[in-house]
Amino acid sequence: MGVGDLWIIAGQSNAAGYGRGPALDPPELGIHILKNEEVWDVAAQPLNDTTRSTHPNLEQANPGHAPYLRFARDLKSALGYPIG
């Protein structure tokens, strides 16, 4: 049985992550993402990675990052349980 909250990130380029500054968001156990290849994994930048995806992104590469990994880390810390 899984425990935690499921949050949905939606919204074209903002959800894909187009921040251009350095991404200081290392992966953290307990923060997961349903990847474009339709498998759950530990969340890491870039969130819109299309490697091995069955639904590839038409863009060649997105070197940016999104604020949602930091948001998930703050939620996990405040709530005390996993975020997906």
Plain-language structure description:
By secondary structure, this protein is of the alpha+beta class. It has one domain. The chain has two helices and two strands; from the N terminus they run H-E-E-H. The protein has helices spanning 12-16, 68-79; strands at 32-34, 40-42. A two-stranded antiparallel ribbon has the order 1-2. A hairpin with a 5-residue loop joins strand 1 (32-34) and strand 2. The longest helix has 12 residues, at 68-79. The model has no long low-confidence stretch (mean pLDDT 76).
Topology:
Layout: H1 12-16, E1 32-34, E2 40-42, H2 68-79
Antiparallel strand pairs: 1-2
Supply the key terms.
84 residues; alpha+beta; two-stranded antiparallel ribbon; 20% helix
β-strand percent reads 5-15%
Number of helices: 2
Q: Biggest sheet, open or closed, and with what strands and sense?
A: 2 strands, antiparallel
* Helicity level: 10-25%
DSSP E strands, number: 2
Brief synopsis:
By secondary structure, the chain is α+β, with helices and mostly antiparallel strands.
